[in-house]
From TrEMBL:
Name of the featured protein: Sigma-54 dependent transcriptional regulator
Assigned keywords, A-Z: ATP-binding, DNA-binding, Nucleotide-binding, Phosphoprotein, Transcription, Transcription regulation
InterPro entries in alphabetical order: AAA+_ATPase, AAA_lid_NorR, CheY-like_superfamily, Homeodomain-like_sf, HTH_Fis, P-loop_NTPase, Sig_transdc_resp-reg_receiver, Sigma_54_int
Modification 4-aspartylphosphate, positions: 63
Domain Response regulatory: 15-129
Domain of life: Bacteria
Source organism per UniProt: Enterovibrio gelatinilyticus
Sequence ranges assigned to domain Sigma-54 factor interaction in this UniProt record: 173-402
């Protein structure tokens, strides 16, 4: 049984087909996606194929476990009959065999794990429909332009120049007195030499940014840069991704596959989250680094590969070595030059620079220009510790821009977690923590923070703040005077 949804506007919205034998799952998915897409549903493979043959579907989202056919088998058939359709699997199961089969045979664009998050699912489908549109546009352009080899070479050279300029150390956002200046200078000195670099630091500190700058300022800049995230990936799948495999090497390996180490020959391979790999994989990686040769899974032939390996991790690898979870010999192979990136809370001077750079970028992406941040907003942003580092800061700026109605982004647009952690300079005479001082002191600190957060969120409108806090205007004004908050800003009465 197939079902249509959002038929009021079937042409303008991207068309997505959902395939699942559970009606409740289809209903929840359709309700989640209905505003962004024209949603078609099918609770069996036969109905899904009928829809595909009659309607120009752009994306198929299939459950993995269905009674008449598995999701990967169904999408393998879709790839044969309707190769342009973007294929996505939703599954609560992460069997490596299914993953490999999905990649090799079904040409899966993305795996969405259950339980899925609405925001992540919608973003994945938007990217998939965008990819479909770009593929179609590319086909039309190729037909119209009949691009010649010299033109392609010129375009390729232009793209390389753009990448080199974009990923240069000078483009890394930081203040003049930032510790990142010294780190960039150190990495720039290392870049021309084929030497292993290990980049460490918390998640979101910019490890990939530094790695790309290292590649695009090296003599390998005109060769491929390939990234592989090693975190939480099954050993067999990770080996297949890096070293490749031959047909029949394991269940689901129906064709030969070239690994990324071979694809990146002459260039740079970035192994992210190297600290999460197994000891079994570490042995094979060490052998490759020592010999410069790889052997695809299932093959007896070795192949010479010339790549520069740069690795990164948010773990303390020296501690992992002492605990026996990471090979010492591999550590010294990878960490010829160790580079540590400090978290954002240790380089507060960079926060305004990075926030403004992020804002300039997303204004262009969203087509929504603003003048910038208010002084109060930047004060709050700079005072927050940003445990998620630059990635968390980027999400916060995106949220502010999307929610903004005024030409300047005010502090009232900040999320509660940022406002709750703001301590003004006027609070310095109070205990800096709720864990020290007398009960009276701690209550006063908490009360002052709540007052300031509420005022900022209400744009310093005292009437609204008093109403929210259950205070009279006279009572609120007395508390503001007591904590020195009156001098901050006299907002609308």
């Amino acid at each position: 049984m197939s079902e249509y949804s959002n038929t009021a506007n079937p042409v303008r919205l991207p068309i997505v087909l959902l395939v699942d034998d559970e009606p409740m799952s289809l209903q929840v998915l359709r309700r989640t996606l209905d505003e962004e897409f024209t949603v078609l549903t099918a609770d069996n493979v036969a109905d899904a194929e009928k829809v595909l043959s009659e309607i120009p579907v752009q994306v198929v989202v299939s459950d993995q476990r269905m009674p008449d056919m598995s999701g990967t088998d169904f999408l393998t058939h879709v790839r044969t009959q309707w190769p342009d359709v973007i294929r996505i699997i939703i599954s609560a199961y992460t069997d490596p065999v299914d993953l490999i089969k999905g990649i090799n045979e079904a040409g899966i664009y993305s795996f969405v794990p259950k339980p899925w998050q609405p925001e992540h699912l919608i973003l994945t489908l938007k990217n998939a429909t965008r990819l479909f549109a770009l593929q179609k546009e590319n086909e039309l352009l190729n037909l119209e332009l009949k691009v010649t080899a010299p033109q392609l070479d010129s375009q390729l050279q232009h793209k390389r120049r753009v990448l080199k300029e974009r990923h240069h150390f000078d483009n890394i956002a930081c203040a003049p007195d930032s510790p990142m200046k010294g780190i960039c200078a150190q990495v720039a000195r290392v870049a021309p030499y084929d030497i292993s670099v290990l980049v460490t630091g918390e998640s979101g500190t910019g490890k990939e940014l530094i790695t790309r700058a290292l590649h695009y300022t090296s003599h390998r800049a005109d060769k491929p840069f390939v990234k592989e995230n090693c975190g939480a990936m099954p050993v067999q799948l990770l080996e297949s991704e890096l070293f490749g495999h031959t047909r029949g090497a394991f269940t689901g390996a129906n064709t030969d596959r070239v690994g990324i180490l071979e694809k990146a020959d002459g260039g740079t391979v970035f192994l992210d989250e190297i600290g999460d790999t197994s000891l079994e994989f570490q042995v094979k990686l060490l052998r490759f680094l020592q010999e410069g040769e790889l052997r695809p899974l299932g093959s007896n032939r070795r192949r010479k590969v010339n790549v520069r390996v740069i690795s990164a991790t948010n773990r303390n690898l020296e501690a992992e070595v002492r605990a026996g979870r990471f090979r010492e010999d591999l550590y010294y192979r990878l960490a010829t030059v160790p580079i540590h990136l400090p978290p954002l809370r240790e380089r507060e001077m960079d926060i305004p620079v990075i926030a403004n750079r992020i804002l300039q970028s997303i204004m262009i992406s969203y087509g929504k220009p603003v003048e910038g941040f208010t002084d109060e907003a930047m004060e709050c942003i700079s005072a927050y510790r940003w445990p998620g580092n630059v990635r968390e800061l980027e999400n916060e700026v995106r949220r502010m821009l999307v929610m903004a109605d005024d030409p300047v982004l005010g502090a009232d647009l900040l999320s509660p977690k940022v406002l709750k952690n703001v301590n003004s300079d006027e609070d310095e005479d109070m205990p800096v923590s709720l864990e020290i001082g007398s009960l009276k002191d701690r209550v006063e600190v908490l009360e002052a923070r709540i007052l300031k957060e509420t005022l900022i969120r209400n744009k310093w409108n005292k009437s609204k703040a008093a109403l929210e806090l259950g205070l009279s205007r006279v009572g609120l004004r007395a508390k503001l005077e007591r904590y020195g908050l009156e001098q901050h800003k006299l907002g609308n009465e």
